[in-house]
Amino acid sequence: MNFSGWHLRPRCFLLPTAKQSYAHLAVFFTPHNSNRRTTQAATSYSSSSLITMAHKPVGGGGELLVVVGGGAAGVYAAVRAKTVAPELNVLVVEKAKLLSKVKISGGGRCNVTNGHCLDSQILAEHYPRGYKELRGSFFKTHGPGDTMAWFSDHGVELKIEDDGRVFPTSDDSSSIMDCLLNEARRRGVSLQTGKVVTSASYDPTGKFILKIEKRSLNLIEHAKADYTLIASGSSRQGHKLAEQLGHSIIDPVPSLFTFKVADSQLAELSGVTFPKVKAKLHLQDMKRNIPQLTQVGPMLVTHWGLSGPVILRLSAWGARNLFETEYKSDLHVDFAPDIHKEDLKALLSRHKEQFAKQKIINSYPPELGTVKRFWRYMLDREGIDGDILWASVSNSAVNAIASFLKNCSFGITGKGQFKDEFVTAGGVPLSEISLNTMESKIQPRLFFAGEVLNIDGVTGGFNFQNAWSGGYIAGTSIGNQALNANLHTSEEIMYNSEEFPG
Ligand SMILES: Cc1cc2nc3c(=O)[nH]c(=O)nc-3n(C[C@H](O)[C@H](O)[C@H](O)COP(=O)(O)OP(=O)(O)OC[C@H]3O[C@@H](n4cnc5c(N)ncnc54)[C@H](O)[C@@H]3O)c2cc1C
């Protein structure tokens, strides 16, 4: 029987009687369209061979962890579990290609984490879903500093850019992929691709029965696992597995997107960037005042509307409400956030006096840091003739310009796409897992990590950090449980071997 490189190791069960033989069922397969007769991986051991195993160095004792999903969280967790418990059998089942999102992430450069948020409290504030729960042990156990140390200890040189984003110095995501996959292979993690885990249940002993399909070969396998880690990202299939094992799912909705604005004149400004604006999202039916719905930072005009860090952050904090209102909302932008409105009026009035003989279209205060195209857009929206001289500009027009710059409103009509990064809000509720271990509170030995959980961050490396932290904690917990299980099994075998010498 070919298990494609997956080496089975018998699990040491308790020894109920001497000289009894043990058949350990670990993985069996059923071809599609057959009568689904199961073929056991018939590995029989006499009690004496088990006793011999008990004297091997303590490791994972041959227990099996199946990781559903070979993304950032799954592979990192698999490596960690195998590091903690080298004798634990670790199988990663990936339906497509391993680390495919790592590959395309950050425009092909992979923004691994954020180097400006080493404090776990501050870091947690970057997660619209999770900011309360993640303030505890989660990032303290494995935060951005630990992630950076892990990659540099494993040979990947990293750099922190001015805005805090961390990239490999190669500016190539394959540095991160190669590192993870080499480490997984070196430690003996079995990585199987092109296979989908399509259903999950557990038997009376608490072991997981996972149905694994390789559709290209019309093959169905079943794995009997001691531990299951669901690290399936935002996939609906992963949510289904969680539901089959007793969990609920918070409906998934997109996060990190740009805003469509139906304004043809604004579209003409496509490419214009504003280094610093203060933007406030007014959500429909939103009674509470959420401070995160006001963001300060760069904004960019696109062909279809608005983008840039400020907009992406607002899209994340408003993701659920915007989804419910079909992405209809109002955005109020302050284009001069560092200038008080009265000071702005005074600045414009001084400019009016100083440049009285110039056409208003050609002259504006440099302190505004704006470009002519935007100035013209502003005059058009306010109905001010650009050909009039500053001398002829009325005080009410000065006030209107100041009001526009301090509180310009845009009607959001839809959701645009941000090609560099997008994530899903929703998934398994955090109330159903223990963040200290990433273990399910509903089903023992079931773990979750990464985007399958109701955690998502804003742009800047925060989403991968969730995957690394969750993967590390889950891998550590599973590894420790496997070590303990083996210790107990060894003790019991030794006890029995005294009673029933082989
Ligand atoms: C274009 C893009 C760019 C991004 N760039 C960045 C960035 O630079 N920095 C950052 O922090 N974040 C970035 N993100 C977000 C980041 O990629 C995700 O948050 C992260 O990949 C989540 O990791 P994960 O392991 O939880 O899920 P994933 O990476 O999605 O991995 C889950 C894996 O599980 C597999 N799978 C699902 N269901 C099954 C099943 N039933 N059986 C078998 N396999 C299954 C999937 O095929 C997938 O490979 C980006 C996202 C996108 C889309």
Characteristics:
502 residues; alpha+beta; FAD/NAD(P)-binding domain; six-stranded antiparallel beta barrel; 15 helices; disordered C terminus
Summarize the structure.
Helix content is about 35%, strand content about 25%. The chain has about 500 residues and is α+β, with helices and mostly antiparallel strands.
Tell me the strand percentage band: 15-25%
The shape, in one word, is elongated
Distance between the termini: 30 Å
Count of DSSP strands: 24
What is the residue-mean pLDDT, rounded to a whole number? 87
Sheet with the most strands, sense and barrel status: 6 strands, antiparallel, barrel
DSSP helix fraction: 25-40%
Tell me the count of domains. Answer: 2
Structural class label: alpha+beta
CATH H-level name of the largest domain... which superfamily?
Answer: FAD/NAD(P)-binding domain
Please identify, by name, the CATH architecture of the largest domain: 3-Layer(bba) Sandwich
Distinct compounds present: flavin-adenine dinucleotide
**What Rg do the Cα atoms give?**
29 Å
Strand order of the largest sheet: 15-18-17-16-19-20
Give me the number of helical elements.
15
CATH class call of the largest domain: Alpha Beta
Low-pLDDT segments, ≥5 res: 1-60, 495-502
- Per the CATH scheme, the topology name of the largest domain is FAD/NAD(P)-binding domain
